[in-house]
Amino acid sequence: MDNIDFKILSCLKDNSRMNATAIGEKINLSTSAVLERIKKLESSGVITKYTTVIDNEKIGKGITVFISVSLEHPKFDEAFRETISHNEEIIECHYVTGDYDYMLKGITASSKSLEQLINFVKSITGVSHTKTLVVMTTTKNEFTSIK
Which residues is 65 bridged to in the sheet? Predict the structure, then answer.
């Protein structure tokens, strides 16, 4: 990876639909060279997918939460991860260090659906303790850091 690759990634991060010609004009590189570099970034696994960023409030999921989860024992890890992966309201699951084992990020529609989400997590076999933080305002929401 060189500085040009980082410039390409920055363009795609800002707008994954930006075409190679527009990227080339922005970073002073030919369209064919941009296409070749993008293909290499994809094949090497640097670019894993292209996606759409959705405004959760506008689709009725205006509550964002972080749920810290402790498990009784590591033997519950695999089943916990499998169960979490099937819940559409949990959009991130991270194995972390510190006082808890996992940090979940969830989106939900209402206080009632938040209660159901928390109860879902608490009912998973092996969960011993949870702590939920409700997001009041998001100041920054980046998906990755380029350089």
Answer: 106, 134
Give the number of other Cβ atoms within 10 Å of residue 130's Cβ: 17
pLDDT (average), residues 122-136: 98
107 in Cβ contact with 129 (< 8 Å): no
At residue 147, the pLDDT reads 65
Sign of dihedral through CA atoms 111, 54, 123, 95?
Answer: negative
Q: Give the separation between CA 120 and CA 79, rounded to whole angstroms.
A: 14
Angstrom distance (rounded) from CA 108 to CA 70: 22
Entry pTM: 0.86
For 55, the token pair is: 């405004």
Q: Where are the alpha helices (DSSP H) in 2-99?
A: 3-14, 20-27, 31-43, 77-85
CA torsion sign for 39, 45, 51, 54 is negative
